[in-house]
Write a structure and sequence with these properties.
ATP hydrolysis activity; Rossmann fold; P-loop_NTPase; hydrolase; exonuclease activity; Rad50/SbcC_AAA; 5-stranded antiparallel beta sheet; 16 strands; alpha+beta
């Protein structure tokens, strides 16, 4: 990373715009920011950090007060930094968030934070050509290019006040995070995670196989009904299987013995069942023959009834047909009477034959046909009368419409004038709204200020009281610390005397004799008491400064509120706000009607033309209706004369024609009825002759005698079926008795069946138990044999998996710094430890030079306390004592030298690792004041050597000696005090 140009505007103590050209300053590789305490030296480094990371180091980053308090209100706070990283030149412009006075009215408004990153030249691959403007995207881009975040940047590139030695004293986790980013060792962490994930995956697979094997053992134990032992499971399984085979053999022998007993019992039972069945069949046959002999008389009666019913069947059919003919004749005569009454209703004679009635109907039909045309004219006459009435109504409506439209047209000009006036009033009200709103807002803000003023005044009083208490506490702490120091100085002689040893030289005077050692006072002050008092004084001083700042903020707030109120009270402002809001409401309501009045005006203007068109149309409709009414009335009068002659004595022509057609229909129906009566009489006479012939043929004297003998066909069929069934059953029974196996069997013979059934039942039960026992034994033996094979197979497959997992687990623990890894170093820590060892060697070269050969870095890969991870320890070897010391035991000046050497060594190793494209810039903020003149000279010689490698080092210090060593100056004036910051180059 190399800086080119820094521009700060209204930032920190700088009210105007200041420019620092690092290309000029870093041309020789070394420059100095020099000035008195508070001159703003650190602010320029803060600007660099803010531009890169939107953050400044140390406690200054917690306040977030980056804007210059003395800057012009319209001056924008901004930091612009141009730099080159990894061969890419870019420019970052960043504005912090701050409050500025409003341009209109009183109060403050928040200025939002902004940032932009643009490329100077072509954009690198993978980045947007037009740059980045979102804060999170800029942060990711900067961290990706630099390879570190802001905390790590403050440890190895920009070494701020109070945090210079942080990397030197950092713990393992902090060093690991920084080194991993600088040396890109994330892949080794990926390897560690890969081993952990693989171990987890393989452990899950192993657990599944273990569970599967255990499941087979559990299932075998369930079938064997025995508890599985923890060890020697193979022998236990073999014993269980052998015992199961023995049980099967015993069950087979018992089943064979019981099966013979069952077969003998079942043979005796079958023989007795057969004899009992023959006795039952003989007894049943004799009973059925007796039953058939008893029903022989009834069967003779059935045969006589069947013969008589068959002879009467023909007579019954002829009688049925005769009844149908008689019914038809009765119906025809009834219909003839109905038609005669219908003709009487129509006042028409019903005399004459069917032929004469049809002739009369024909004549009347012709007369009705001549009236058909006049019926159509009568319907048209009715429609024309309706049309005349409609035309009269249309004429009256058109006349009223003409009068109505004429009145509306006469009223329209006055209404248009009224609407235009209302629209103009609403437009004027709308023009006043912005001014009224602004006035109301300003008054409302002033009222809020008036309401806030009492609280601000109370806060100011509380801040003043807190400041007084803080001042008192600070004074008391200072006096207490001074008192303790005086008492310790007074007792210093006694403290030194306590270390005197008889015969040894005094550390003060060198004498080996100590005739009158000083005695301690009653209340001797120790160093830790004085240190505690100093810490208490510092805390009290910090509390005093915070109270002072709080008081200043409260004073500013009260002054700003009083200035904006300009003497107005809360009550006055409340009344003004109410009046302004009332006026605003009234004017807003009037302005809101503007669109309505303009719309109604446009509608009225359009209505004027529409009314003229409607009036013209209404006048045309009136003339058309009156003309059509007169013409149609003449046609109706002419048609009335013709229809009056044609209707005769009826109401109209249609009624007369309908009467004629009704008479014609009734005459036709009567002719048909008389024809049907004659036909029915002839058919009845013919059927009576057929019935007499059927009686003679069936040998019945009367029709009643034949009807009494007749039976339904189903009854005859049932009687015949009974007769046939009796004959068939008798033949079957006789054939059964004739069977050879029933010869000599008596129907009263007795067979002992119960004892044989009991013996067979007992034998079957014993046989079923024996078979079930055998099947259960065989099934258990087969299941045990199958499960034993599967369990053995599962155990065989499990053994190599367990061995493989044990090896993987051990390797994973070693890679992750556990298990057999004695140093508790993970693979990533091991790689980083190697890098840190290189850094220690490079830093030792510089540290040994700057400390004149006394100190050198020692890298430690030992495990931490309580078994924590190790590998990134960094101690210091003191060549004077020959002991290795923790870095935390170094004094202030020694810590400065060690930290500077470590930073330079880290930069050397990273530059070599990345081809010299990363850490080629270093800033050191203070710390030179802790060095004596000789050590300072050595350090400056070391820094001078860096310029040969093209590195740029920026120093921040108020040490006068550095000012003389780097004489060329560039002055930057601080806004608040007018003091000058000098930037000097070698």
């Amino acid at each position: 990373m190399r800086l080119h140009r820094l521009e700060v505007t209204a930032f920190g103590p700088y009210a105007g715009r200041e420019v620092v050209d690092f290309d000029v300053l870093g041309a020789d590789g070394l420059f100095l920011l020099h000035g008195d305490t508070g001159a703003g030296k650190t602010t320029l480094l803060d600007a660099v950090a803010f531009a890169l990371f939107n953050s400044v180091p140390g406690a200054r980053g917690e306040t977030k007060r980056l804007r210059c308090d003395l800057a012009d209100p319209d001056q924008v706070t901004e930091v612009a930094l141009e730099l080159t990283v990894q061969g890419q030149r870019l420019r970052i412009v960043r504005n912090p968030e701050y409050l500025r006075p409003k341009r209109r009215g009183d109060g403050f408004t928040k200025q939002q934070a902004k940032v932009s990153l643009t490329w100077v030249g072509a954009a690198p691959s993978g980045y947007a050509a037009d740059g980045v403007t979102r804060n999170d995207e800029v942060a990711r881009t900067v961290e990706r290019l630099l390879g570190m975040n802001h905390k790590q940047f403050f440890q190895v590139v920009l070494l701020p006040q109070g945090e210079f030695a942080r990397f030197l004293r950092a713990d393992t986790a902090e060093r690991e995070d920084l080194l991993e980013r600088l040396f890109s060792t994330e892949r080794f962490g990926d390897i560690e995670r890969w081993f952990v994930n693989l171990r987890t995956e393989r452990f899950q697979e192993l657990q599944k196989q273990r569970q599967a094997t255990q499941n087979w053992v559990t299932r075998f134990a369930q079938v064997a009904k025995a508890e599985a032992p923890e060890d020697e499971q193979i022998d236990w399984v073999a014993g269980i299987c052998l015992d199961a085979v023995s049980q099967v053999e015993a069950a087979k022998l018992a089943e064979y013995q019981v099966r013979g007993v069952r077969e003998k019992a079942e043979a005796v039972l079958d023989e007795r069942k057969a004899m009992a069945e023959r006795v039952r069949r003989v007894k049943s046959a004799h009973a059925k023959l007796a039953e058939l002999a008893a029903g022989a008389g009834q069967r003779e009666l059935w045969r006589a009834e069947v013969a008589a019913a068959k002879r009467a069947a023909g007579v019954a059919d002829a009688a049925i047909q005769l009844r149908k003919r008689v019914d038809q004749l009765t119906q025809s005569r009834r219909l003839e009477q109905v038609q005669e009454r219908a003709l009487a209703t129509l006042r028409q004679a019903a005399t004459g034959t069917a032929v004469e009635l049809r002739a009369t109907a024909g004549a009347l039909r012709e007369e009705a046909g001549t009236l058909a045309g006049l019926v159509a004219e009568a319907e048209q006459q009715r429609q024309d009368r309706v049309r005349v009435s409609e035309l009269a109504d249309a004429a009256r409506y058109a006349g009223k419409r003409v009068e109505e439209l004429t009145g509306k047209i006469e009223e329209l000009p006055a209404r248009l004038e009224r609407l235009r006036g209302k629209a103009n009033d609403a437009l004027a009200a709308e023009a006043k709204l912005d001014g009224l709103r602004l006035t109301a807002e300003e008054l409302a803000k002033a009222l809020r200020d008036a309401e806030e003023l009492p609280g601000a005044q109370k806060s100011l009083a509380a801040a003043e009281s807190a400041l007084r208490e803080a001042v008192d506490a600070h004074q008391h702490a200072r006096e207490h610390r001074q008192n303790l120091r005086e008492r310790r100085l007074d007792g210093m002689a006694a403290e030194l005397a306590a270390d005197l040893v008889p015969g040894q030289a005094c550390a003060v005077c060198g004498s080996a004799e100590h005739p009158a050692p000083a005695m301690p006072m009653l209340a001797l002050v120790e160093e830790k008491q004085e240190k505690a008092a100093e810490d208490a004084e510092k805390r009290a001083e910090a509390a005093r400064e915070r109270a002072q700042l709080a008081k200043l903020d409260a004073e500013k707030l009260v002054a700003a509120l009083e200035e904006r109120l300009r003497g107005r009270t809360r009550e006055d402002l409340a009344a003004e706000v109410a009046a302004a809001r009332a006026e605003l409401t009234s004017v807003s309501e009037l302005a809101a009607q503007r669109a309505r009045w303009e719309r109604e005006t446009r509608q009225a203007e359009a209505e004027s033309g529409q009314l003229a068109d409607q009036l013209n149309q209404a006048e045309q409709d009136l003339v058309k209706a009156e003309t059509g009414q007169n013409s149609l009335a003449e046609q109706i009068a002419e048609r009335d004369r013709r229809l009056e002659v044609a209707r005769g004595e009826h109401a109209d022509v249609g009624a007369r024609r309908a009467h004629l057609l009704a008479v014609v229909s009734a005459l036709d129906a009567l002719a048909e009825a008389r024809t049907a009566v004659a036909t029915a009489e002839r058919e009845c006479e013919e059927q009576r002759e057929a019935v007499d012939a059927a009686l003679r043929q069936a040998e019945f004297a009367t029709l009643e005698e034949a009807q009494a003998a007749a039976k339904p066909a189903q009854v005859v069929a049932d009687l015949e079926a009974r007769l046939t069934a009796a004959q068939t059953e008798e033949a079957h029974v006789r054939s059964v008795l004739a069977e050879p196996e029933l010869a000599g069997v008596e129907p009263d013979a007795v067979v002992d069946l119960e004892s044989a059934m009991d013996a067979a039942r007992r034998a079957r039960a014993e046989a079923e138990i024996a078979v079930s026992t055998l099947q259960a034994a065989e099934l258990r033996s087969r299941e045990l044999s199958d499960l034993a094979g599967k369990m053995s197979e599962a155990m065989t497959e499990l053994a190599p998996v367990e061995e493989e997992f044990a090896e993987l687990k051990a390797l994973t623990e070693v890679v992750n710094g556990r298990g057999q890894n004695a140093r508790k170093m993970s693979l990533r820590s091991y790689v980083l430890a190697a890098r840190l060892e290189e850094v220690a060697l490079a830093a030792t070269f510089r540290l040994s030079t700057m400390s004149q050969g006394r100190y050198s870095f020692v890298h430690s890969d030992a495990a931490g306390s309580r078994g924590t991870r190790g590998g990134l320890g960094l101690d210091v070897l003191d060549d004077y004592s020959g002991t290795v010391r923790p870095a935390k035991t170094l004094s202030g000046g020694e810590s400065f030298l060690a930290s500077l050497a470590l930073a330079l060594g880290l930069a050397d190793v990273v530059a070599a690792e990345t081809g010299g494209a990363l850490l080629d810039t270093l800033f050191v903020d203070e710390g030179f004041g802790t060095l004596d003149a000789e050590t300072l000279d050595i350090v400056m010689n070391v820094l001078d050597e860096l310029r040969a490698g093209g590195r740029v080092v920026g120093l921040v210090s108020h040490v006068e000696e550095l000012r003389h060593r780097i004489p060329t100056r560039l002055r930057v004036r601080k806004a608040r005090t007018g003091s000058t910051l000098e930037i000097q180059t070698a």
